[in-house]
Amino acid sequence: MNEQPTAQAPRFVVFEGIDGSGTTTQQARVAERLRARGHRVHETREPSTGQIGELARALLAVVPGRPVTVDPAALALLFAADRLEHLTREVEPALARGEIVICDRYVISSWVYQSLECDGAWVRTLNARARWPDLTFVFDLDPTLALARVAQRRASTGQVVERFDVPQTQRDLARGYAEVLADQLDGVERVDASLSIDAVTEAIVGRCIAHGL
Ligand code: TYD
């Protein structure tokens, strides 16, 4: 039988990074690998699939001919509200059942994305009540490469263009994530997202195992 997480092992794991850095692809792969080690894993994401999250996602979509009208501060409040609702409705119950939760985007997304248009300290205050994850992997990738990946994905899937899919914005976001990494926060680790898909999975799974999973 495989070991269950110990009291110290991380259970709330978050993937962060600019659009196209590969968090969504890696979430499914890492979850599979952890399941093969005997863990029960709950995969989730933010904006969440709850009502507030769906509203945030709808407001992010860039519709041709429709000007981007949503107020940045209102959007920051929506992401923070979605986060608390997501924690209560989905994340905390899964953790209470003894599952490992892997969340695609979380608090650091708000810090980095919403701080482009709102006061950074205010954004952090809004999110201060959201529990800090045990482990956060920040996917580090050159924004030019990331945007190329996003363009390819959107062309092949017909996925909508979103508010932040702009080269200069992606460069600013990459700088924001680099600043967060430089702060060496508790449980926050850098992942070299320029490696092959397999190598990134190996790197993350290796870190999870090193942390006791
Ligand atoms: P994303 O994970 O890219 O979803 P999808 O792959 O379906 O497009 O998230 C949607 C966008 O939401 C992304 O551009 C980042 C943005 N976002 C914020 O601005 N703040 C937040 O707090 C979160 C969670 C996401």
Automatic annotation (TrEMBL):
NCBIfam families: DTMP_kinase. The gene is tmk_2. InterPro entries: P-loop_NTPase, Thymidylate_kin-like_dom, Thymidylate_kin_CS, Thymidylate_kinase. Keywords: ATP-binding, Kinase, Nucleotide biosynthesis, Nucleotide-binding, Transferase. It catalyses: dTMP + ATP = dTDP + ADP. Belongs to the thymidylate kinase family. It holds the Pfam family Thymidylate_kin. Gene3D superfamilies: P-loop containing nucleotide triphosphate hydrolases. Phosphorylation of dTMP to form dTDP in both de novo and salvage pathways of dTTP synthesis. Its EC number is 2.7.4.9. It comes from the Bacteria. This is Thymidylate kinase. GO terms for biological process: dTDP biosynthetic process; dTTP biosynthetic process; dUDP biosynthetic process. Residues 15-204 form the Thymidylate kinase-like domain. PANTHER family: THYMIDYLATE KINASE, UMP-CMP KINASE 2, MITOCHONDRIAL. One of its GO terms (molecular function) is dTMP kinase activity. One of its GO terms (cellular component) is cytoplasm.
